[in-house]
């Protein structure tokens, strides 16, 4: 479960945060719309949004230091960061596509042979089915040189229904986590192994 809230400070800048039951994570983010897709006097073929988030994992276990002694992780050890560039284009009323180059930085990793930085490229698509419903697909590909051992790329498929003020999303995914750190860098589930999870989101626009 994740409960979160977003607030638009301006038409371009949004702040938000939330709390997830998975690993008892807290997260916060800043999102800034750099470019907005438009036609006419000012033609801009895509929208570009910058996203920066921070995650705190409070359900961490002891780690081993350089002397192979188990020690309690500090607060800084529990922090992770995500940076994304969201490049989106609405091709028509029925189809939209988004590309998401991503960097996940973890302050501490299990081995000195594993990089603290994980690079990935995500892609998301929205296919409008009716005036108020759509099919959504999202996939993240971890670049091999920075991939954590035992992790796999995340694929999620969802069905979205819009009502007056609410948005309901039903989805299937091979990831259990709901923060960028969890579903981009640390996903251990595989569709081919039957690690398919069902979930739903409810969003309320105030």
Structural description of this entry:
By secondary structure, the chain is mainly beta. It has one helix at residues 180-185; strands at residues 2-8, 13-20, 25-35, 47-57, 63-64, 70-71, 79-92, 95-106, 117-130, 133-142, 154-162, 166-173, 197-204. The strands form two sheets. The chain has an eleven-stranded antiparallel sheet. Strands 5-6 form a two-stranded antiparallel ribbon. It is globular, with a radius of gyration of 18 Å. The two termini are 21 Å apart.
Rounded to the nearest angstrom, the radius of gyration is 18 Å
Strand content: over 45%
Shape: globular
Strand order of the largest sheet: 1-2-3-4-7-8-9-10-11-12-13
Structural classification: mainly beta
Quick rundown:
The chain has 206 residues and is mostly beta strands.
């Amino acid at each position: 479960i994740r409960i979160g809230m977003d607030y638009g400070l301006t038409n371009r800048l949004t702040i938000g945060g939330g709390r997830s039951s998975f690993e008892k994570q807290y997260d916060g983010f800043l999102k800034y719309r750099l470019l907005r897709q438009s036609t006419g006097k000012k033609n801009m073929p895509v929208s570009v949004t910058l996203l920066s988030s921070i995650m705190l994992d409070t359900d961490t276990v002891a780690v081993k230091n350089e002397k192979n002694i188990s020690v309690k992780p500090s607060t800084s050890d529990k922090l992770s960061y995500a940076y994304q560039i969201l490049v989106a284009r609405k091709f028509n009323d029925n189809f939209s596509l988004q590309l998401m180059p991503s960097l996940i930085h973890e302050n501490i990793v299990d081995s000195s042979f594993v990089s603290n930085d994980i690079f990935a490229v995500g892609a998301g698509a929205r296919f409008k089915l009716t005036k108020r419903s759509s099919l959504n697909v999202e996939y993240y590909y971890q670049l091999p040189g920075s991939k954590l051992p035992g992790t796999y790329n995340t694929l999620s498929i969802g069905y979205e229904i819009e009502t007056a003020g609410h948005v309901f999303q039903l989805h299937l995914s091979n990831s259990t986590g709901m923060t960028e750190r969890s579903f981009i860098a640390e996903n251990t589930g595989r569709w081919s192994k039957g690690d398919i999870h069902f979930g739903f989101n409810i969003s309320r626009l105030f």
